[in-house]
Amino acid sequence: MERLDKVLANLGYGSRKEVKALVKNKEVLIDGEIAVDSSMQIDPEKSEIIVAGEKVNYRQFIYLLMNKPAGVVSATFDKFDETVIDLIDDEYKVFEPFPVGRLDKDTVGFLLVTNDGELNHRLISPKWHVDKVYYAEIDKKVEESDIKAFESGITLDDGYKCMPAKLEILSADDNGSEVRVTIQEGKFHQVKRMFNSVGKNVVYLKRISFGPLSLPEDLDEGQYRELTEKEIELLKKV
Question: How far is Cα 79 from Cα 81, in angstroms, rounded to an integer?
Answer without folding.
Answer: 6
